[in-house]
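Example for tutorial group B:
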């Protein structure tokens, strides 16, 4: 089997095409660490330079078993867990094997459960208990990485904020917009992330098309298929499914704007989605709903438009798109602001601190 890798990244819920997973692994590799990934999906979609092993995506109730199996197979001297169930399994097995344990907490999972239709009754109670146990494991771990300041745990032995800033090596640079107006959405495709608002916007903005890159939630798939057959959307929406980051973002070339029409839910209210940073890094103007932090970025930098969240989000977005198509000078103005922001936001590697901390755990062995 060869020498064990420096780092094992274990996930029971994330596809190996996940963008944050790719960014973290790329940072570990730049630091000279060898990495294996144990996750879901197609191994070919995994991060470059890592040894990738996957399992089929099962039902929600099977995730704990997947977590235990993957944690048992992890061979790294440091094990990074990306989800609550994986963290619980990695902590139990990793501690027995004297491995360093790192929790990477993408979002506030307690708040996220309130956004999931399945998280009710006994299932919801069990999921809530798992999140609580995982929170205690994270606080006691060797290192916890959180995607934003508000993401729990707020205190831990060693807590490092690693925001979802873009890795520019995975994104195309700014480009001239296509002749025909085209909007872009990259991310999970579900109602709470603005799916119906996007479709309402497109229906109200003749002449526009939309590229959607990401997995469609099972709960919304049938309604989405029916909606796309209606005359007002037929042939105007292209669904590309889940793609690894470098492939997902190739549709940014020539796009007129990126959409971030999140609903006002506990999970999203205080968040800044990574796609907002990524759209702007590609030089794209954006349309966002008026959730506090994402709206503040757009208003302060003048890089797009803010629309009300709620039932009117689609119609308000349609008015923005129609106005941009009718007056390209306004679109050029916000596009120039987006490109200017991209030029001034050439961050130092935002994942370097995480890679350094993990490398130190590897060194301690």
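The residue assignment follows.
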């Amino acid at each position: 089997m060869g020498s064990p890798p420096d780092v094992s990244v274990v996930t029971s819920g994330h596809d190996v095409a996940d963008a944050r997973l790719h960014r973290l692994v790329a940072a570990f590799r730049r630091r000279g660490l060898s990495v294996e990934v144990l996750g879901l999906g197609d191994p070919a979609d995994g991060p470059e330079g890592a040894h990738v092993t996957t399992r089929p995506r099962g039902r929600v109730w099977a995730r704990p078993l997947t977590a235990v199996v993957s944690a048992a197979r992890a061979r790294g001297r440091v094990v990074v867990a990306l989800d609550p169930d994986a963290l619980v399994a990695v902590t139990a097995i990793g501690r027995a094997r004297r491995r360093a344990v790192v929790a990477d907490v993408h979002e506030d999972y307690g708040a996220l459960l309130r956004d999931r239709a399945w998280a009710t009754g006994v299932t919801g109670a069990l999921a809530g208990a798992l999140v609580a146990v995982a929170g205690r494991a994270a606080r006691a771990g060797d290192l916890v990485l959180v995607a934003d300041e508000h993401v729990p745990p707020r205190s831990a032995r060693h807590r490092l904020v690693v925001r979802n800033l873009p890795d520019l090596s995975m994104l195309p640079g700014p480009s001239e917009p296509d002749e025909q107006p085209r909007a872009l959405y990259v991310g999970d495709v579900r109602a709470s992330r603005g799916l119906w608002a996007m479709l309402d916007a497109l229906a109200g903005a003749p002449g526009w098309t939309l590229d959607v890159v990401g997995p469609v939630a099972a709960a919304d798939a049938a309604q989405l298929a029916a909606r796309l057959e209606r005359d007002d959307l037929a042939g105007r929406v292209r669904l590309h499914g889940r793609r690894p980051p470098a492939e997902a973002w190739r549709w940014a070339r020539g796009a007129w704007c990126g959409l971030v029409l999140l609903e006002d839910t506990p999970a999203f209210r205080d968040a800044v989605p990574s796609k907002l940073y990524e759209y702007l890094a590609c030089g794209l103007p954006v349309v966002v709903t008026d959730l506090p932090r994402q709206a503040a970025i757009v208003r302060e930098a003048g890089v797009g438009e803010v629309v009300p969240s709620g039932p009117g989000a689609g119609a308000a977005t349609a008015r923005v798109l129609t106005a941009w198509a009718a007056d390209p000078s306004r679109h050029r103005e916000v596009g120039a602001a987006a490109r200017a922001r991209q030029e001034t936001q050439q961050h130092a590697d935002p994942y370097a601190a995480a890679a350094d901390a993990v490398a130190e755990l590897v060194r301690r062995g």
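The mean pLDDT is 93. Compare this with the pattern of hydrophobic and polar residues in the output above.
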